[in-house]
Amino acid sequence: MDLWVEFKDDxxxxxxxxxxxxxxxxxxxxxEFIGESTPGVLDPSGKPxxxxxxxxxxRFVSGxxxxxxxxxxxxxxxxxxxxxxxxxxRIKLGLSSMTRTRxxxxxxxxxxxxxxxxxxxxxxxxxxxxxxxxxxxxxxxLYTPARLGE
Length: 150
What we know:
The protein has 150 residues and is mainly alpha-helical. 65% of the residues lie in helices and 0% in strands. It has helices spanning 2-15, 24-37, 50-67, 75-93, 107-120, 129-142, 145-148. Helix 2 (24-37) packs across helix 4 (75-93) and helix 5 (107-120) packs antiparallel against helix 6. The radius of gyration is 21 Å and the shape is extended.
Protein backbone atom coordinates (compact mmCIF):
# COMPACT_ATOMS: atom_id res chain seq x y z
CA MET A 1 0.00 0.00 0.00
CA ASP A 2 2.96 2.34 0.62
CA LEU A 3 4.03 1.86 -2.98
CA TRP A 4 0.59 3.07 -4.12
CA VAL A 5 1.01 6.32 -2.15
CA GLU A 6 4.44 6.85 -3.70
CA PHE A 7 2.99 6.12 -7.16
CA LYS A 8 0.13 8.59 -6.68
CA ASP A 9 2.53 11.35 -5.66
CA ASP A 10 4.87 10.59 -8.58
CA UNK A 11 2.02 10.50 -11.11
CA UNK A 12 0.56 13.74 -9.77
CA UNK A 13 3.95 15.47 -10.09
CA UNK A 14 4.40 14.25 -13.68
CA UNK A 15 0.90 14.70 -15.08
CA UNK A 16 -0.99 16.67 -12.43
CA UNK A 17 -3.69 13.98 -12.37
CA UNK A 18 -5.02 11.95 -9.51
CA UNK A 19 -4.53 8.19 -9.67
CA UNK A 20 -7.45 5.92 -8.85
CA UNK A 21 -7.33 2.14 -8.43
CA UNK A 22 -10.69 2.01 -10.21
CA UNK A 23 -9.21 3.51 -13.36
CA UNK A 24 -7.73 0.90 -15.71
CA UNK A 25 -5.08 3.25 -17.10
CA UNK A 26 -3.92 4.14 -13.57
CA UNK A 27 -3.61 0.47 -12.67
CA UNK A 28 -1.55 -0.25 -15.78
CA UNK A 29 0.75 2.65 -14.97
CA UNK A 30 0.98 1.38 -11.40
CA UNK A 31 2.00 -2.08 -12.65
CA GLU A 32 4.77 -0.40 -14.67
CA PHE A 33 5.78 1.56 -11.58
CA ILE A 34 6.02 -1.70 -9.59
CA GLY A 35 8.19 -3.21 -12.32
CA GLU A 36 10.52 -0.21 -12.33
CA SER A 37 10.89 0.00 -8.56
CA THR A 38 11.24 -3.70 -7.71
CA PRO A 39 14.75 -5.12 -7.62
CA GLY A 40 15.31 -8.47 -9.28
CA VAL A 41 16.95 -11.44 -7.60
CA LEU A 42 17.14 -14.16 -10.23
CA ASP A 43 18.21 -12.10 -13.23
CA PRO A 44 21.91 -11.12 -13.28
CA SER A 45 21.01 -7.67 -14.67
CA GLY A 46 18.78 -6.98 -11.65
CA LYS A 47 15.45 -6.97 -13.50
CA PRO A 48 12.46 -8.45 -11.64
CA UNK A 49 10.54 -11.34 -13.13
CA UNK A 50 7.04 -11.03 -14.52
CA UNK A 51 5.81 -13.30 -11.71
CA UNK A 52 7.37 -11.05 -9.06
CA UNK A 53 5.64 -7.96 -10.42
CA UNK A 54 2.38 -9.92 -10.71
CA UNK A 55 2.67 -11.02 -7.07
CA UNK A 56 3.29 -7.45 -5.90
CA UNK A 57 0.29 -6.26 -7.90
CA UNK A 58 -1.94 -9.03 -6.48
CA ARG A 59 -0.83 -8.16 -2.95
CA PHE A 60 -1.74 -4.53 -3.60
CA VAL A 61 -5.21 -5.50 -4.86
CA SER A 62 -5.75 -7.74 -1.82
CA GLY A 63 -4.53 -5.05 0.56
CA UNK A 64 -6.76 -2.47 -1.07
CA UNK A 65 -9.77 -4.80 -0.76
CA UNK A 66 -9.06 -5.38 2.92
CA UNK A 67 -8.67 -1.70 3.72
CA UNK A 68 -11.55 -0.56 1.49
CA UNK A 69 -14.23 -3.29 1.54
CA UNK A 70 -16.77 -0.92 -0.01
CA UNK A 71 -14.51 -0.08 -2.98
CA UNK A 72 -13.09 -3.41 -4.14
CA UNK A 73 -11.10 -3.37 -7.38
CA UNK A 74 -13.03 -5.45 -9.91
CA UNK A 75 -11.69 -8.32 -11.98
CA UNK A 76 -12.60 -6.27 -15.05
CA UNK A 77 -9.61 -4.10 -14.10
CA UNK A 78 -7.17 -6.61 -12.63
CA UNK A 79 -7.34 -9.20 -15.44
CA UNK A 80 -6.34 -6.74 -18.22
CA UNK A 81 -3.46 -5.48 -16.07
CA UNK A 82 -2.24 -9.04 -15.52
CA UNK A 83 -2.42 -9.72 -19.28
CA UNK A 84 -0.65 -6.43 -19.96
CA UNK A 85 2.13 -7.49 -17.58
CA UNK A 86 2.72 -10.66 -19.56
CA UNK A 87 2.95 -8.81 -22.88
CA UNK A 88 3.40 -5.05 -23.23
CA UNK A 89 4.91 -4.20 -19.83
CA ARG A 90 7.27 -7.20 -19.96
CA ILE A 91 8.65 -6.02 -23.29
CA LYS A 92 8.72 -2.32 -22.36
CA LEU A 93 10.60 -2.84 -19.08
CA GLY A 94 12.60 -5.86 -20.18
CA LEU A 95 11.28 -7.99 -17.33
CA SER A 96 12.92 -11.34 -16.86
CA SER A 97 11.06 -14.58 -17.54
CA MET A 98 13.39 -16.67 -15.38
CA THR A 99 11.92 -19.05 -12.82
CA ARG A 100 13.39 -20.67 -9.73
CA THR A 101 14.24 -24.33 -9.86
CA ARG A 102 11.60 -26.43 -8.17
CA UNK A 103 12.32 -27.90 -4.80
CA UNK A 104 10.32 -30.76 -3.43
CA UNK A 105 9.47 -31.88 0.04
CA UNK A 106 11.83 -34.41 1.51
CA UNK A 107 11.06 -37.07 4.08
CA UNK A 108 12.93 -35.01 6.66
CA UNK A 109 10.74 -31.95 5.94
CA UNK A 110 7.59 -34.05 6.08
CA UNK A 111 8.58 -35.55 9.44
CA UNK A 112 9.25 -32.04 10.75
CA UNK A 113 5.77 -30.90 9.66
CA UNK A 114 4.09 -33.87 11.34
CA UNK A 115 6.13 -33.43 14.54
CA UNK A 116 5.21 -29.75 14.59
CA UNK A 117 1.54 -30.60 14.16
CA UNK A 118 1.38 -33.31 16.82
CA UNK A 119 3.99 -32.29 19.39
CA UNK A 120 4.78 -28.59 19.19
CA UNK A 121 1.58 -26.96 17.92
CA UNK A 122 0.44 -24.39 20.50
CA UNK A 123 -2.91 -23.85 18.78
CA UNK A 124 -5.92 -24.91 20.85
CA UNK A 125 -8.14 -26.77 18.39
CA UNK A 126 -11.87 -26.87 19.12
CA UNK A 127 -11.85 -30.57 18.28
CA UNK A 128 -8.74 -32.74 18.16
CA UNK A 129 -10.11 -34.26 14.96
CA UNK A 130 -8.89 -31.12 13.16
CA UNK A 131 -5.32 -32.24 13.78
CA UNK A 132 -6.15 -35.56 12.14
CA UNK A 133 -7.71 -33.79 9.17
CA UNK A 134 -4.67 -31.54 8.71
CA UNK A 135 -2.35 -34.53 8.93
CA UNK A 136 -4.47 -36.37 6.35
CA UNK A 137 -4.26 -33.38 4.00
CA UNK A 138 -0.48 -33.38 4.33
CA UNK A 139 -0.36 -37.08 3.48
CA UNK A 140 -2.82 -36.65 0.63
CA UNK A 141 -0.70 -33.89 -0.90
CA LEU A 142 2.50 -35.83 -0.41
CA TYR A 143 1.22 -38.96 -2.15
CA THR A 144 -0.49 -37.42 -5.18
CA PRO A 145 0.55 -38.88 -8.58
CA ALA A 146 2.49 -35.71 -9.37
CA ARG A 147 4.59 -36.16 -6.25
CA LEU A 148 5.17 -39.89 -6.74
CA GLY A 149 7.15 -39.22 -9.91
CA GLU A 150 9.64 -37.16 -7.94
